[in-house]
């Protein structure tokens, strides 16, 4: 009787183990199947092309089909999430961007998707964290740096603005704007000499930046620094 009961207990476990082994072997075979690899590559390439030309509905279909063939590619999950975002399916976009990061936390583009979703929902704290993480991975991303600095300015986080803009790379688009906003934050922090330097950089990059010139004049008077002229700072 005991042997019969033991058999009843062991048999289901054996069936589960055997089924799991079959599925594991099948999954491995699929990963090695060149036809599946080729199909994924073709769909991914097509989706990437459609993304570039702005056909997001078409891109979504391609990435969705590719995802069904392979559900653990962080790059594919990110591109799928991006297409979902562009087609207004925000909840799903958040889900798949998060899944991309679960697979690989260094997929920095996924943080951009999550940051945009957070800003759209008004969660600026979360957006700040996502953009900050993006910049940790992509320090040369000037667009994210600009967005982070302006987001912090909107939140009245003056030290945060300084942190975002003080290392804005020279000779890059937007350097005049970044340094102007840096100067504003430094002025409000009463760090006037640093603010003047920031406005000088802004004016040097864009000599027509009248607001920067005006702020230099005002701060010069504040510091009794009338001997230096705006022309000299250009």
Summarize this structure briefly:
With 234 residues, the chain is an all-alpha fold. The chain contains 13 helices and no strands.
Present the secondary structure layout.
Layout: H1 2-32, H2 34-52, H3 56-69, H4 74-86, H5 90-103, H6 108-120, H7 124-137, H8 142-154, H9 158-165, H10 175-188, H11 192-205, H12 210-222, H13 230-233
Helix pairs in contact: 2-3, 3-4, 4-5, 4-6, 5-6, 6-7, 7-8, 8-9, 9-10, 10-11, 11-12
DSSP strand (E) fraction? under 5%
The CATH homologous superfamily of the largest domain is named Tetratricopeptide repeat domain
Shape: elongated
Instruction: Please name the CATH topology of the largest domain.
Output: Serine Threonine Protein Phosphatase 5, Tetratricopeptide repeat
Tell me the helix content. Answer: over 70%
Which structural class best describes the helix and strand composition? mainly alpha
Report Rg. Answer: 27 Å
Order of helices and strands: HHHHHHHHHHHHH
Q: What does the average pLDDT come to?
A: 85
Oligomer: single chain
Uncertain runs are 2-30, 229-234
How far do the termini sit from each other?
98 Å
CATH class designation of the largest domain = Mainly Alpha
Characterize the biggest β-sheet: none
Count of helical regions? 13
CATH architecture of the largest domain: Alpha Horseshoe
Describe this structure in words.
The chain has 234 residues and is mostly helical. The chain folds into two domains: 38-138, Alpha Horseshoe (Serine Threonine Protein Phosphatase 5, Tetratricopeptide repeat), CATH 1.25.40.10; 144-234, Tetratricopeptide repeat domain (Serine Threonine Protein Phosphatase 5, Tetratricopeptide repeat), CATH 1.25.40.10. The chain contains 13 helices and no strands. α2 runs antiparallel to α3 (56-69) and α4 packs antiparallel against α5 (90-103). The longest helix is centred in the N-terminal third of the chain and has 31 residues, at 2-32. The radius of gyration is 27 Å and the shape is elongated. It starts with a helix and ends with a helix. Mean pLDDT is 85; it is low at 2-30 and 229-234.
């Amino acid at each position: 009787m005991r042997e019969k009961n033991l058999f009843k207990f062991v048999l289901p476990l054996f069936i589960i183990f055997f089924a799991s082994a079959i599925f594991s072997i099948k999954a491995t075979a699929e990963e090695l199947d060149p036809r599946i690899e080729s199909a994924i590559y073709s769909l991914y390439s097509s989706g990437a092309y459609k993304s570039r030309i702005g056909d997001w509905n078409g891109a979504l279909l391609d990435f969705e089909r590719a995802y069904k063939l392979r559900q653990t590619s962080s790059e594919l999950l990110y591109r799928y999430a991006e297409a979902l975002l562009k087609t207004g399916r925000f909840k799903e976009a958040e889900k798949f961007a998060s899944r991309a990061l679960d697979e690989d936390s260094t997929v920095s583009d996924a943080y951009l998707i999550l940051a945009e979703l957070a800003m759209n929902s008004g969660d600026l704290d979360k957006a700040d964290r996502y953009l900050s993480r993006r910049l940790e991975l992509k320090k040369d991303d000037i667009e994210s740096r600009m967005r982070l600095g302006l987001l912090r300015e909107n939140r009245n986080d003056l030290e945060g603005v300084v942190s975002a803009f003080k290392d804005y790379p020279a000779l890059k688009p937007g350097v005049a704007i970044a340094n102007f906003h840096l100067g504003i934050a430094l002025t409000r922090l009463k760090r006037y000499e640093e603010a003047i330097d920031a406005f000088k950089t802004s004016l040097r990059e864009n000599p027509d930046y009248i607001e920067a010139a005006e702020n230099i004049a005002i701060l010069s008077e504040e510091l009794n620094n009338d001997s230096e002229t705006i022309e000299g700072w250009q």
